[in-house]
Inverse folding.
């Protein structure tokens, strides 16, 4: 049986460990490893690095999701951070959005295998999903998707007024936060806090938390890949 000792130690230190939680992480890890042989899900294959940079990284800010009922994860990819968060927060409902059908098929396999009744995967581009998900979510998150001024355009329209955008970023986030100041204003968001964490290997993580203080214009997010081609500045 796979032993994810670094993850196990972290879960214990955060009082998140149960046998059921641990078994679900192992099952998820094995599904990613198996599928990664035929489909590019992650470049990180070393077991220790995988635990640190995918699992532990995903759950670092879990306390900031605990009071949410509905969370949207944009650009879910292989399921980070939403699947690890869903494993440890069974009372929170997660909607995983990805634009590639093959990845959505994988996510559905994970959801079914792990018995995650608090998850659903949706095949959609972020700008299209905003048509059905606008202002429906208590929190919206994304990891390794885009620069912050672009990311806010994809995520902020989904957050309820009073809700949050929780963006997973690395140590360079300070520059991104500064560059995204005007985009945040346009999209009805205010920077509430910047969380600082360190992974077990010493790598720094910064997670900007934005509060949605008002509705934004319904033209956002713009279609035609405009958030990336012509980012808000």
């Amino acid at each position: 049986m796979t032993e994810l000792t670094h993850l196990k130690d972290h879960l214990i230190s955060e009082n998140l460990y149960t046998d059921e939680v641990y078994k679900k992480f192992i099952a998820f890890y094995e599904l990613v490893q198996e599928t990664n042989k035929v489909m590019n899900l992650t470049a990180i294959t070393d077991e220790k690095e995988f635990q640190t940079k995918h699992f532990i990284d995903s759950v670092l800010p879990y306390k900031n999701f605990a009071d949410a009922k509905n969370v949207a994860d944009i650009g879910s990819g292989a399921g980070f951070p939403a699947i690890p968060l869903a494993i440890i927060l069974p009372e929170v409902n997660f909607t995983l959005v990805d634009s590639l059908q093959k990845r959505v098929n994988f996510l559905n396999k994970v959801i079914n295998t792990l018995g995650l009744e608090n998850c659903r995967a949706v095949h959609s581009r972020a700008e299209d999903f905003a048509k059905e998900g606008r202002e429906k979510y208590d929190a919206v998150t994304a990891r390794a998707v885009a620069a912050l001024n672009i990311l806010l355009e994809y995520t902020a329209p989904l957050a309820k007024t009073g809700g949050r955008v929780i963006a997973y970023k690395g140590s360079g986030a300070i520059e991104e936060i500064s560059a995204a100041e005007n985009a945040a204003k346009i999209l009805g968001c205010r920077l509430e806090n910047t969380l600082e964490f360190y992974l077990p290997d010493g790598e720094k993580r910064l997670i900007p938390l934005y509060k949605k203080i008002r509705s934004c214009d319904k033209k956002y997010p713009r279609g035609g890949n405009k958030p990336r081609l012509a980012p808000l500045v």
In short: The first strand starts at residue 70 and ends at 74. Residues 5-216 form a domain with the Rossmann fold fold (CATH 3.40.50.150). Residues 19-36 form the longest helix (18 residues). The chain has a mean pLDDT of 95.
